[in-house]
Design brief:
alpha+beta; 4-stranded mixed sheet
């Protein structure tokens, strides 16, 4: 995958969320660059997450335009591979 084809990964999370921490640890271990958006620190970020996903809970993860609610390692591997 070239730099231009690289998918943008965004993780909407909160510091207290254990599933969020597990998802980010997985991405870090795989060497995947991602943007972490702490929705507890910004009402605007929380509204953005809700608008994009329709979800109130975290994590919400986007790989390009593909969305994952929560964290499933197998699904994440598939999303990153596409």
């Amino acid at each position: 995958m070239t730099k231009r084809e690289k998918k943008i990964v965004v993780v909407y999370s909160t510091p207290a969320c254990p599933i969020c921490r597990r998802a980010k640890a997985y991405l870090k271990k795989r060497g995947v660059d991602y943007k972490d958006i702490d929705v507890s620190a910004s009402e605007e970020s929380a509204h953005e997450m809700i608008h994009r996903s329709g979800q109130l809970g975290t994590p919400v993860i986007f790989v390009g335009e593909k969305m994952m609610i929560g964290f499933n390692q197998k699904k994440m591997e598939e999303m990153l591979a596409r």
